[in-house]
Specification:
Elements lengths: L2 E5 L6 H9 L16 E10 L14 E2 L2 E10 L14 H7 L5 E7 L24 H24 L7 H9 L6 H9 L12 H15 L2 E6 L6 H8 L5 E3 L2 H13 L2 E2 L8 E2 L5 H17 L4 H12 L2 E7 L17 E4 L4 H8 L1 H5 L1 E6 L4 E3 L9 E7 L3
Parallel strand pairs: 1-4, 1-5, 5-6, 6-7, 10-14
Antiparallel strand pairs: 2-4, 3-4, 8-9, 10-11, 12-13, 12-14
Helix pairs in contact: 1-8, 3-4, 3-6, 4-5, 5-6
């Protein structure tokens, strides 16, 4: 399953974001390192369900009137402080947890109410711009340290006949989630010596930075927009990188309101409706949240998850079925499964995503929307419904 990791300094709102996105309760407190052990939960990317093209909605538990929610893993780990790559705070533990994540969501306190150590200060006392590149720098330096500590092994290997530096570097970086294609792409952009003994510290840092950029893309969440100075939010949004304005606390309040039965809201909606009895205090708070959502187009939590999945990772959603006319599985369930695949994936890739035996026995596939057979090289599009014909049962 695709994995998203929440990163940021303590008190930026990671655990509130996690709780809102997963509806799993975790410790949330106003002091650093509330999160010690990583929290793992399931959240969802939101997309349009193919059932919108049919007369009736599919009725799937993850489809809310055509809003399809596709499961992804969400990881919330301990906050970072300066020097984390050297082990400060819980830095090494935090960074180790990131190795298996596909994409990073950097949660920043847009209110400037926490200093660089994650300690509470007055609103606006800290410049949140300083927190933007913080995660990238710590990750780059941490990975560069790993490369440095293991470079002697690469140098020893270079004395053997048939040594290939690209293969050696690939072996070194696979533990960080890099493929041979990632390593090859990074090396193509570098001017480096074939002799690892000649590599400088700067060369190894460039390798680490390039691999991190390819394997751990980052989206910034400007959190706490409901209490942040407007100029702070605007400066963050004006940066030349993806920044999503958000109120994790607002999203959490909405989801709890839905659970309590007095709100109508689906994650990612731009607004909500009050459907039950609320107190005057709740009505006032919801009114303030309504204004924030109207200004920014929602709470931003779902928008951040979607940006990570569909924009940074460039995923598409595909739906395998057994009955191409009814779009059902063998039990009659309509659109029973949704898979996230890299843009450019083929029906064969989808077959393997369903099960390795299905992939091994792949014969052909049918686009259930057009009722036409598609070739092995056909590139799946967002929302494709596909019947896979395989020798495997």
């Amino acid at each position: 399953m695709l994995s998203i990791a929440l990163a940021g300094k303590p008190n930026a709102g990671k655990s509130t974001f996690y709780t809102a996105a997963t509806r799993s309760e975790v410790d949330v407190a106003n002091y650093p390192f509330t999160t010690i052990d990583a929290n793992r939960g399931i959240t969802h990317a939101r997309t349009e369900c193919p059932c919108l093209t049919r007369e009736e909605r599919c009725g799937h538990e993850h489809c809310h009137d055509g809003k399809r929610y596709v499961p992804v893993e969400l990881l919330d780990v301990a906050g970072l402080v300066p020097g984390a790559h050297e082990g400060r705070g819980l830095g090494n533990q935090f960074l180790d947890e990131l190795t298996n994540a596909d994409v990073i969501v950097n949660v920043v306190d847009a209110a400037g109410a926490t200093n660089e150590e994650g300690e509470p200060v007055e609103v606006g006392a800290h410049d949140p711009i300083e927190d933007i590149d913080f995660i990238e720098e710590e990750m780059d330096l941490w990975l560069a340290g790993i490369v440095d500590r293991n470079w002697e092994t690469v140098e020893r290997q270079s004395r053997s006949p048939g040594f290939d530096i690209e293969e050696a570097v690939t072996d070194l970086m696979t533990g960080f989630g890099a493929t041979e294609y990632d390593v090859a792409a990074v090396l193509r952009g570098m001017d480096y010596s074939e002799d690892p003994v000649q590599w400088s510290t700067e060369d190894r840092e460039a390798l680490a930075r390039g691999v991190r950029e390819r394997t751990k893309p980052i989206v910034v969440v400007a959190n706490k927009i409901d209490v942040a100075p407007a100029e702070n939010v605007q400066r963050l949004l004006d940066l030349d990188k993806p920044v999503i304005p958000a109120t994790a606390q607002g999203e959490l309040a909405l989801r709890r309101g839905v659970d309590a039965g007095f709100l109508d809201y689906d994650p990612g909606d731009e607004d909500f409706q009050i459907t039950g009895e609320v107190s005057d205090g709740q009505r006032d708070a919801l009114g303030d949240l309504h204004e924030t959502m109207r200004e920014y187009g929602g709470t931003g939590v779902q928008a951040a998850l979607n940006h990570a999945v569909y924009d940074l990772l460039d995923m598409v959603t595909a739906y395998p079925v057994q009955d191409q006319s009814k779009w059902t599985d063998a039990k009659g369930n309509v659109l029973p499964d949704a898979f996230l695949l890299e843009n450019g994936s083929t029906p064969v890739d989808l077959a393997y995503a369903v099960h390795s035996d299905i992939g091994d026995g792949y014969l052909h596939a049918v686009n259930a929307k057009t009722n036409r057979e598609v070739g092995e090289e056909y590139e799946l599009e967002e929302g494709d419904v596909v019947k896979i014909v395989s020798t495997a049962k």
